[in-house]
Amino acid sequence: MQEKGTISIHTENIFPIIKKFLYSDHEIFLRELVSNAVDATQKIKRLAQLGQYNGELGDISVEVAFDKDKKTITISDKGLGMTAEEIKKYINQIAFSGATEFVEKFKDAKDANEIIGKFGLGFYSAFMVAKQVEINTLSYQEGAQPARWTCDGSTEFEISAGDRKTRGTDIILHINEDSEEFLDKWRLQGILDKYAKFLPVPIKFGTKTESVEDGVDDKGEKKWKSVEVDNIINTTSPIWTKSPNDLKDEDYLSFYKELYPMSEDPLFWIHLNVDYPFNLTGVLYFPKVKNDFEFQKNKIKLYSRQVFITDEVKDIVPEFLMLLHGVIDSPDIPLNVSRSFLQSDSNVKKINNYITKKVADKLAELFKKDRKVYEEKWNDIGLFVKYGMISEEKFAEKGKEFTLLKNTNGEFFTLTEYKDKVKALQTDKNEQVVYLYATDIAKQDAFIQSANKKDYDVLVMDSPIDNHFIQHLEMKEEKTSLKRVDADVVEKLIQKEDTYANLLTEEQSKKVKDVFEKAINNQAYRVEVEGLSPEEMPVTVTMEEFMRRMKEMAQMGGGMGFYGAMPDNYKVAINGNHPLIDKILKAEAEEDQAKLAKQAFDLALLAQGMLTGKDLTAFVKRSVELI
C-alpha cells in the first residue's frame, strides 16, 4: 500500500499561517499531542465499556520519549489508532471545511485571536518544532492494516504501509534546528509537569530510581535497594474530580501542598461542582494573605478535562478573588484552538457569577456557623471581602451580612451593628453619622485617646484596600461619613452645637498666629487659632481628610495623579484655650515666644511621626534647655 497526495486545502498558504499565528509558545505542541493521545485512549476505554471493543485493553498509558542523536520526540498511545482512510479524513483535511475561504480570510491576519477557536488544528502544532512529522498507527478495528503518514510541513504528504503491531498511534517528530532545546530530558519533564500533571490517563516519561524494601539485616532492621521504575508524571484522579463526600480535610490540605509546596496551610476552601447550565469542577483555597496586596495572580490554574490550559483566569474569576489559590476545570469554557486564550462567551460570565455566589455563600456560612472563629480569621480574609464589596455589586449585596469592622479595642461589628453602636454619640450637627478611623494605631495614639475621652469609638482601617473601602461605605451607608482620627482636632471631626469658644481676643489670636508662623517658617503649614478644650493639645498638625485621601489613592494608582503631584499641605491648629498659649503671650522676649511656639509645634509633629533628622535633634536639645 502506497499513496501520495496533497492535503486538501487548495493552497500552500495554510502552514505559514498556522506557524505564524496559531501558537505563540512552541512548548504547546507537547500538550496538544499528549492530549490527543489521551483522548484516543479514553475513547477505546469507552468503547470497551459499551461492549463495542472486545479486545484486551492492557496497559493504556501514554508514553513520551526522545532520541537526542536521531533528533526525534515520540508520543505513543494505545488508543483507537487510525486506518489509512481515517488519516486522510482527520489529518489531511485538517478537520475543517471551506479551507479556501479560511485561507483567504486569514492570510493577512495580524492577530492570532482571529484564527483561534475556528478549527481543530491541535495536531498541527507539531510543525512548530518539527521539520517532518510521522504517524505510525494501527486501528483497533478487526482486520485493520497499519498505516504510516509523513509530511514535511508543506502541503505534500505520503501514506504508506506502517509497521505497528499493536493497537494505537505513534507520533514521531523530527525536530528542526531552531527547536533542539526540546531534545532535553528536563525541558520535556518541565512541560509535562506543567500541562499533564493531572491527565486522566497515566503519562510515562522514561524511568526514575526509587528505594524499595529488600528484607531485613542481621539486626532485624529493614534493608533498602534502588530500582528503576516507570516515571509516571501524573495523578490521574485529582481531588476536584471526586465527590466532596469522599474527601477529608487531609485530602484538601495534601492537594494544596502539592500545588503550592512552600505555602502556609490555607484558611479554608470551596469545592466547586456544577453540571447545569454548564460543567464546572474545582477547588478554590483562601490563603493567608493578611495585608499583602501584591497581586499573585497566577495562583488559580484553569484546566479543561484535566488538561492544564492557563493560569490567566481574569475573565473567569472575579478580580477580587484573584488572590485565591486552586484549580478550576471546565470543558464549557470556550478556548481558542491552541487552548491558550479565553473567548468572549456567555458561559464565562455565568461561571464568573457562579464562583462569586459560591464564595459569598461560603463566607456567610462560616460567619453564621462560628462567628468567633470567623473574627479570628478576619485579618486574613478581610482583604478579599472588602475588595469584593467594592468591585462586585452582587457580592456586595450578600457581603453586608458578613463584612466586619474592627475598632481599636479589638471588637468586631457588622455594618449594621456598628452604625447602631455609634449613631447616638457620633452624629454631628448636620445629622451625619461620623465614623472615626485610624490607619496606624501606634502613630495616631494621641488622637485616638483624644477621641476616646469623648467616648467616641475609633475603627482600624489599615489594609491597602481600606482607602477605597471607606469611599464605598460613604456611598452605601446613608448619611454617613468617615474621617481619619488625625485629620483634625476631635471637635472639628464631629462638630456639635456646643463647641468651645476661643477665649483669646482678636488681637491676641493675631499675635499668636504671627508668632507661630515666624517660628514654623514654612508655607506648607497653614496656622489657625481655634477655641478647643483646655485639655486638648496646645498645637495639632493635620492634613485635610479629602486631600490626604486623594494623595493616598494616587499612590495606589487610583487615577488621582494630579493630587499625587501636589505638594503636601498641613493645617496647624492652635488651641487658644490651652495654658501654654497664655504663657507664650505673656513671655516678654520675642526669642522666648518663638522658642515655646517652636517647641509646641515640634511636639505636634512628633505626635504625627513627622519630626525627624536635624529637627528631631534640635527638639531634644531644646527640651533639655527648657526643663
Task: Write up this protein.
With 627 residues, the chain is of the alpha+beta class. It has 4 domains: 2-204, 2-Layer Sandwich (Heat Shock Protein 90); 239-373, Ribosomal Protein S5, domain 2; 403-493, Rossmann fold, CATH 3.40.50; 506-626, Heat shock protein 90, C-terminal domain (Four Helix Bundle (Hemerythrin (Met), subunit A), Up-down Bundle). The chain contains 20 helices and 22 strands. A 9-stranded mixed sheet has the order 1-6-5-4-7-3-2-8-9, with helices on one face. The chain has a 5-stranded mixed sheet with strand order 10-11-14-12-13, sandwiched between helices. A hairpin with a 5-residue loop joins strand 10 (268-274) and strand 11 (280-286). Helix 9 crosses helix 13 (466-476), helix 18 runs antiparallel to helix 19 (590-607) and helix 19 (590-607) crosses helix 20 (613-626). The radius of gyration is 35 Å and the shape is elongated. The N and C termini lie far apart (109 Å). Residues 9-13, 95-103, 109-120, 337-341 and 559-564 have low confidence and may be disordered.
Key traits:
Rossmann fold; 627 residues; elongated; Hsp90_N; 20 helices; five-stranded mixed beta sheet; 4 domains
How are the strands of the largest sheet arranged? 1-6-5-4-7-3-2-8-9
Tally the helices: what do you get? 20
For the sheet with most strands, the description reads: 9 strands, mixed
- Average pLDDT works out at 84
Number of strands: 22
Residue ranges: pLDDT <50 for 5 or more in a row?
9-13, 95-103, 109-120, 337-341, 559-564
Shape verdict: elongated
**SS content category:** alpha+beta
Domain unit count: 4
Percent of residues in beta strands = 15-25%
- In whole angstroms, the N-to-C terminal distance is 109 Å
Rg over C-alpha atoms, rounded to the nearest angstrom: 35 Å
The CATH architecture of the largest domain can be given as: 2-Layer Sandwich
Determine the CATH superfamily of the largest domain.
Answer: Histidine kinase-like ATPase, C-terminal domain
Q: Determine the fraction of residues in helical runs and give it as a percent range.
A: 25-40%
* CATH topology call of the largest domain: Heat Shock Protein 90
Assigned CATH class of the largest domain: Alpha Beta
